[in-house]
Write a structure and sequence with these properties.
The protein is an alpha/beta fold. Helix content is about 40%, strand content about 10%. It has ten helices and six strands. The protein has helices at about 15-25, 40-45, 65-80, 95-105, 115-120, 130-135, 145-150, 170, 195-205, 225-250, and strands at about 5-10, 30, 50-60, 85-90, 110, 155. The chain has a four-stranded parallel β-sheet with strand order 2-1-3-4, with helices on both faces. It has a two-stranded antiparallel ribbon with strand order 5-6. Strand 1, helix 1 and strand 2 (about 30) form a beta-alpha-beta unit. The radius of gyration is 19 Å and the shape is globular. The N and C termini lie close together (about 10 Å).
């Protein structure tokens, strides 16, 4: 049966990766490359001409290194003639998780980072973020993905952090979580109704572009004509391109990449 395979640049052992692999109903089709430099190798290892591949790669307006990884991988895909592969940029998986935490859960950050929730996650308003929150100790600007990682790892409660703390949000159902135990001191309880791991994983996955393509064969049931497949992908890439155009504009960066110029042909 034809499948949709998802490849991410994150570490396989990260809390977010484990949440998706172990609890999302499509987890068996997720692969992690341990860094952007490993994406090409991971794609080639899993590649089959009869499957459909979506490769998520971090691309950040104020981090030029991510541009090189994107362009190099796109060139490799073109050179190999992989026409059933779509390269989809995202800011980072931490950004995706933060969008879910703000939308569904009682997410808070320490007071010094609360403004980042408002102007990075709820709405993107780069100019409204105080310059002091954008700068590192050496006076250089944080890249956007570094700000997202910093924000996630200043989470309250600590179980939502990915660098340290309990990480219970990514590993335990609510009824198993000791921080939700009614016998604990009320001051120590998070009070977050976080539910089941499966639900959390599905919500994170659904926040990703083209997540609706995951069900095995589901895309091919849309129509007997391959043009429907191409149309769906094209629409998603156009939306991604428009999202990034606004990011680049607000951050005062020049957008040199067009995400809609990928040639995607039928594999039916």
């Amino acid at each position: 049966m034809k499948k949709t395979i998802y490849i991410f640049e994150d570490k396989n052992s990260s809390p977010i990766s484990r949440l998706l692999i172990q609890n999302c109903c499509y987890g068996c089709n997720f692969y992690f490359s341990e860094g952007a430099s490993g994406l090409a190798k991971a794609l080639c290892k899993q590649y089959k001409k009869d499957d459909f591949f979506i490769v998520f790669i971090d691309l950040v307006p104020n981090n030029q290194a991510t541009f090189k990884y994107y362009n190099d991988l796109k060139q490799i895909i073109d050179d190999l003639g992989y026409q059933n592969v779509v390269l989809v940029p995202i800011i980072c998986m931490e950004y995706v998780v933060l969008k879910v935490l703000v939308k569904y859960y009682q997410y808070q950050a320490r007071s010094s980072h609360a403004i980042l929730i408002e102007h990075l996650i709820k709405e993107f308003n780069w100019s409204d973020i105080p310059i002091g929150l954008k700068l590192r100790e050496d006076g250089k600007e944080y890249s956007l993905e570094k700000l997202c990682k910093q924000l996630l790892n200043n989470s309250i409660p600590s179980c939502m952090k990915t660098d340290k703390g309990s990480k219970y949000f990514y590993t335990m159902n609510q009824q198993e979580c000791p921080e939700a135990d009614e016998m604990l001191d009320q001051r120590k309880r998070c009070g977050t109704a976080c539910g089941r791991l499966k639900e959390r994983a599905e919500r994170v996955f659904a926040q990703l572009p083209l997540s609706e393509m995951a069900a095995e064969g589901s895309f091919y049931c849309l129509s007997e004509k391959s043009c429907i497949w191409v149309q769906k992908v094209s629409e998603a890439l156009q939306q991604t391109d428009a999202f990034y155009l606004e990011l680049f504009r607000q951050m005062g960066c020049r957008k040199t990449i067009d995400f809609t110029d990928q040639f995607v042909s039928s594999i039916l």
